[in-house]
Every structure is written in structure tokens, then in C-alpha cells.
Amino acid sequence: MFARLGRWCYRRRILVVVAWLGAVVVVSTVSGVAGNGFRSEFSLPDVESRRGFEILDERFGGQGAGWVGTIVFRAEQGVQDPQVRSVMEPFLQQVDAIEGLTVTSPYAPGAEFQTAFGGSEAGRIAFATVEVPRSTSNGQAAALAAEIRDLAPELDGLQIELGGEVFAEFEPPDSELLGVAFAIFILVLAFGSVLAMGLPIGVALAGIGVGSGLVALLSNVVTMPDFTTTLGLMIGLGVGIDYALFIVTRYRESLRHGDSVEASVTIAIDTAGRAVTFAGTTVVISLLGMLLMGVTFVQGLAVGASLVVASTMIASITLLPALLGFVGQRVEVTRWRGLIAAALVAAALVGVALSVQPLVLGLPLAAVVLAAGFALAPLRREVPRRTPRPLRRTVAYRWSRVVQHHPWLAASIGAGLLVVLALPVLGLRMGFSDEGNYPAETSTRKAYDLLAAGFGPGFNGPLLLATELPAGTDPAVLEGVTEALRSTDGVALASPPTLNDPAAPTAVLWRVIPTTAPQDEATEELVERLRDETLPTATAGTGLDVAVTGTVAVGIDFSTYLGGRLPLFFGVVLTLSFVLLMLVFRSLLVPLKAVVMNLLSIGAAYGVVVALFQWGWFSGVVGVGEGAPIEPFVPMMMFAIVFGLSMDYEVFLLSRIREEYDRTGDPVDSVADGLAATARVITAAAAIMVFVFGSFVLEPNRVVKLFGTGLAVAVLLDATVVRMLLVPATMELLGARNWWLPGWLDRLLPRVSVEGAGDEDLLDLASEVEGAGEGPSEPAHRQPEPVP
Fold first, then answer.
1. pTM of this prediction?
2. Which terminus of the chain has fewer CB atoms gathered within 10 Å of its CB, N or C?
3. Dihedral of the CA atoms 291, 292, 298, 299 (nearest 10)?
4. Does pLDDT of 99 surpass 70?
5. Whole-angstrom Cα distance, residue 97 to residue 420?
6. How far is CA 715 from each of CA 282, 604, 710, 719, rounded to the nearest angstrom?
7. H or E segment and range at residue 132
8. Residue 47 lies in a domain
9. Last residue of one domain, picked from the residues 555, 585, 617
């Protein structure tokens, strides 16, 4: 099937390329016209915060159940100054007139608490609440924020900021340009070919273009957070370049063996294309495993990321063979002008990503100079090719032999390093960071700081307490609940009970302001204290069942729910990993080692993330403020992604080792030979992923920084400590036992091949392709490989 697919795409390459270009244009246009529906919606099972929102929705007409933002303003002359009121009151009335918005002004009767009444900012800071329907997408909220900003008046001494999650700024990232620039540099350096560099990048971008457009369209019917596209872009760029790189590398090997272009394309898809399909499918399956979590927010992330990965995988096995048909033998030829062009493109991308204006402005002049230089003979000359070294003279082979001569020491150092890095994970605290982590120059952060200065840090995360009210409930009971709330440690302010209908009340609502910020551990402890101690005691024997809800409570319930299901998710993913590797390599110990080493490497990545983002160690390195909890979906997403990526490297390395072992029966040299044969490709692929993921650390959004850091560290550790240290050391210690499998189990397991045909079959395949009569005229026979 894979051979036929590669041959079909090669022979109909014009049709395939046009189809992909059309798909990119159509999907991008349709998604641009239709818009997106990204929104952060937590649909949880039967938890207390959800019950509270249902009461608010049914009994209070949705009051407090929608997205709530704030218009925070500070006036040096005081918010009650006549001149300030003369501009702010009409402004707030204009905002209230916008369809779908409900505004509560600090100048309304009974809203005196919306003006700071204590401290040095008393009377100078006030806020209006703005509630929008919970169905509002991030794009619609951004449009509303822009409309409100356009209406905002200007007055000397008056500062107006928009705060709250609904108005939080989220800028599309441009750091992926920096990752692409590094990919250009690494690929040219590693493979010495501009075309071998350009093909993987072009194919990855095509797959991402289609996948991202489909994600934007799908967000209108599936709940997805606004950074789903960023996450998909981050993963798709890394895996897309890797997948295409593996296929191009296999294609070039076939050309060097003497196969024709068509035969080389067919063989590359039948071998490396299988591995790419296996690896991509594994990533998709591991991501879609998060659908079992039962949370819409996580399900949206899983569907969006897996859609981009699937798109890049399909591009690698369809668009790439078509492009290789156009490139042909020229993939081995690099001219000086091509290198100069690649360098200019990389410089342009770096300049745009880092906003280096002089460099960007100088690019048109450089392009003119380059165009004129194309006519010069020196630029047309080929770059001298490097003579490949025999495998057993490479650095990778010598390194493997050093490790194999000291296996216990190497294994101890590798495992010890990973364990030390993983230690901080024991202090992992999952939760949601608040708007205090936004960059200081954003309006969201300024509004957060103004509220904290005027009303205390807890004002940025109020708690809502709601309950059904049994008929005939004594009002004194409600006042008793209020007093109990006010006397609870950690409560700065508790409002009087608010009835949904004073004439015939059926529900009651309290607002509680904590003394600590929304992301503080003390706030989480307060929610637990209210649920476990204060409210049960205050409502005993009254028939009241008060539910603690609000954004902060939802975040706590969400974190608790996901934390409880993580072991199940990890178990399913690790079991899947074990079974797949057992099928591929016909071994029990190889997949068992892979599972253990995957746990060590992902644990080390978790530990680095906790130390940087939760504890705040070296936080200046990644540009975040003081420590905050780790978003609860991050460990799960990281595990699914890193699992898939590590399977990629695992299959690529171990399949070559197994091939050498089957050929020679030598458990020692097969490890060194396999490592030497794959080291350059794995190192280049891992370096690209590290730079692509690491470039997202430059983004202002904390969650994007967190993902980028965690994935970059995980890939770096997996490709170095695990692949280059632990794998050769442990395989040396186990020797031939690595490939042991009970006979009865071997007979039961189905045969799965991710390497494709063997050497003899490849010769037959090449001859078959040439015999079809449509291939180029190059000879279809291979030259024997030099003996190392």
C-alpha cells in the first residue's frame, strides 16, 4: 500500500501539489470568512461549582454565570469628582447599551462597594462589572474589548483599563518564525543541502496551514481555548519537519545506492513513510486518549492538536513524494547562491520574530543584491560535498563503545540526572494562574494591579455562594450564614444575602472576597474550609445546601477532577506504549525499558517546569514573574505529546539496532552500529524540535511559555540522556536478552513492520518500479555499501 501510494503521488505530482495548494487556500479563506469560536469553557461532571452555576442560571437569570470582566479606572482627583463623573457615567451607559453586555456601574445606588474605601487609594479607584454570555467566543470578546476601548473617554489624571479573563489579551504568536529560522540553519548544517532543508519545512508548513484552518473552523462547534492553534502550531511544526526529514533522508540514501528517482521515492515511502505513519498515528492516538477525561476544555485541546498532527503526517506521505518528483537528483546538489538565499531567509525570519527593524528594512536591498549576484558564475558553483565517514569512524560509534565499556557507570549517571531533575515534581501543585502573570504593559495586568491596590488581591477572584431556599426559611438563618462567612479565616469581605425574588424567594446568593489572590494556595485552602467546615456548621439542620462556585472554585474543581484521573490516563498511555513496542520489536524487555525511561524523562521535564514556573527559580530566564500553580491540563498534554515523540525516536533507533542484530547476531556491535547510523538524523530532528518548542518561551502568554519550556526540555533529555546514554548502556547490560520473547507469545502476536521491506525486497521493488516504464532512465541497481 505504501509503495503504491508513493508511486502514485510521484507520477501525478502536478495534481497532488495543486490539490494541496488548493486545500491550503480554500481552508484558509473559509476559516477567515467564517471566523473562529475559541472559548474557554469548563464543562465538568457533577461537582459543586457546576451545581452553583446551575442555581445562578435557573434562579438568578444567569447572574454571575456568564463571563465577567471589569472596567477599572483610577482618577487622581477622585472618582467622585464631578468632571470624572461627567465622562465616566455616559461612557458606562454606552457600554451597557452594547448588545449582550450587562454593566453594573459604581455610580449606581447600592454599588458603593465598587469604589475603594480604604488605604492610600481610597476614593481614587473604582470598577464596573461587565458580564457577557458564557457562549461568547474569544474572538467576539476581543471585538467587544476593542469597541469598549474606542468608547473610552480621555481626561487628564484618568486611567481606564479592561480586566478579567473575558477581556484578556491573547496575541497570535510569531516565535514560530524563530523556530523555522533555526530549523533552516540546523538542516543545512547537518545535511549540506538547501533542497533537503527546504522540503521538510515546506511540507510541514503546508500541513500546518490546512490543519490550523480546520481547527479554526471546528472551534465553532467544539469548545476549544484560544491557544489551541498555538499548541497545534508548536507540535505540528516540530513533528512535521521531523517526519519529512526522515523520508527525505531515506530518499537520499536510495539515490546514493544507485536507484532511480521514482524507485527512491517509492522505497522512501514504503520504509520511512511507514515509520512516519506509525509515529504520527501514535501521537494522534495518545492525544485523543484525553477524550476519556470527560472535560470539554481538554477534549477541544486534544482534537485540535491531533488534527494538526494528522494533517502534517498526511502531507509527509503525499505532498512530499510529489515534491521529490520535481526535485529529483538536485536534492544532492547545493550551489552557493542557494546557501546565500537560505541565510537571507533565516535572517529575515529572525528579524521579524525579534522585531529587529533595521534588519527587516535592509532585506529588500539584500534581495536586490542577491538577484544581481545570481548572474555571477561563482554563485552558480556547487558547494563541495562532504565525504561520508564509515560508520565505525564516526563520533557516535566511538561514543557508543565508550558507554558500552562502562555500562553501569553510564546508566547510573543518566538515571541519577533524570531522578534529580524530577525531584521538584513531588511538590507539584495544579491550578490556574491569574491575570497577575500577564506582561506588565498589558491592560489586563494593569487592571489586575489597580484592583489589588484599591480592594486587596482577593478582589480579582471573588467567590459566589448559592443555594436553593426552602419555603419558610427563617431570615435569621441567612444572617447566621453571613456572620459565619465573615468570621472565617481568609475572608476579607462577605456580602449580605441576596434573594432572587424578595417577594417570593426561592434561592439566595452571597459574594465572598478572599484576602489572598486567586492563584494563591491560601485561596484554595479557603474554598476547602468553606465547604468542609464553615458552611456545613452554619447550615446544619436548616435544609440549606450552599454551593461554592465562581471562576476560582471552578478552577479548583477542574484541577481536582483532572488530578484524580491522571493516573488512569498515564496507565492507558504507558500500556499502549508497551504493547505497540512489543508488537514492533518482538521483545518484552525493550518496551519495558522504554516505558521506564519515558517516565524518567517526562518526570525530569515536569521537575524543570515546577522549579521554573511554580517555585519561581530562575524565573527571569523564561520571563515569568513569581511562582504560580501549574495549569492542570499541562501535565496531561505534555505526557501525551512527549510519549508520541519519544516513540518516534524509539522506533527509529531500535529498528536500526534490531536490523543489525538480525543480520549479525551480535548484541554488542549491533547497538553501536545502530546508534551510529541514526545519530545524525535523531540529533538534527531533536535539535529542530528543541529550538521550535524553545522559541515559544519568547511569547508573552504564560501557558504558551510553559508548554514550550516543558516540551523543549523533554525532547532534549529524551534525545541525549535517554537515546545516547541510557539506551546503549542498558542494552549492553542485557545483551541478547533484550530481544527475548516467549515462543507462545510470539505466535499469538500479529506481525507489524514499520521498517518496510528488507534489502532484497527493496532491490525487487526498485526493479518493479523501473519495469513499469514510467520512471526516469537511471539504473535500478544498487551499489554495494563499503565495508566499515
1. 0.82
2. N
3. 20
4. yes
5. 58
6. 16, 11, 9, 6
7. strand 125-132
8. no
9. 555
